[in-house]
Design goal:
InterPro entries: NTF2-like_dom_sf, SnoaL-like. Helices cover 24% and strands 40% of the residues. The protein is of the alpha+beta class and 121 residues long. A hairpin with an 8-residue loop joins strand 4 and strand 5 (93-100).
């Protein structure tokens, strides 16, 4: 008897998350729809090229990661984590993903931009 496994929305998003946070943006984009829309602080990214450029600019600055929570249903996933950028290790980030046809079609990214600003002199 052959056992079939079904990929859940959470599986897809976690595979995407593991790929980009390990620096493999190309692999991460395999999980993303061509017409993705991302709402990020200060930017609306439309399309895989714009989204890939955004990830490609951020991923190399990542020095580590602390995952805090991941949960979802059939079409939506929420991640909550601390991206480590240099000395900053406790500035939270959250993402809400909507999947369509097994691909990430929408992403709402929330993080505190001021946490990543240079310190006040």
């Amino acid at each position: 008897m052959t056992q079939q496994t079904q990929t859940t929305a959470l599986d897809t998003v976690l595979a995407y998350h593991r790929a980009w946070t390990s620096g493999d943006v190309t692999a991460a984009l395999e999980y993303v729809a061509d017409n993705i829309v991302c709402q990020a602080p200060g930017a609306e990214l439309i399309g895989k090229d714009a989204y890939g450029a955004f990830l490609g600019g951020f991923a190399p600055t990542l020095t580590g990661l602390t995952d805090l929570a991941a949960f979802g249903d059939d079409d939506h996933v929420v991640l909550f984590y601390y991206p480590h950028i240099g000395q900053i290790t406790t500035a939270p980030a959250a993402e809400h993903f909507t999947l369509r046809d097994g691909k990430i079609a929408e992403n709402i990214l929330v993080f505190d931009r001021l946490s990543y600003a240079p310190p006040q002199q």
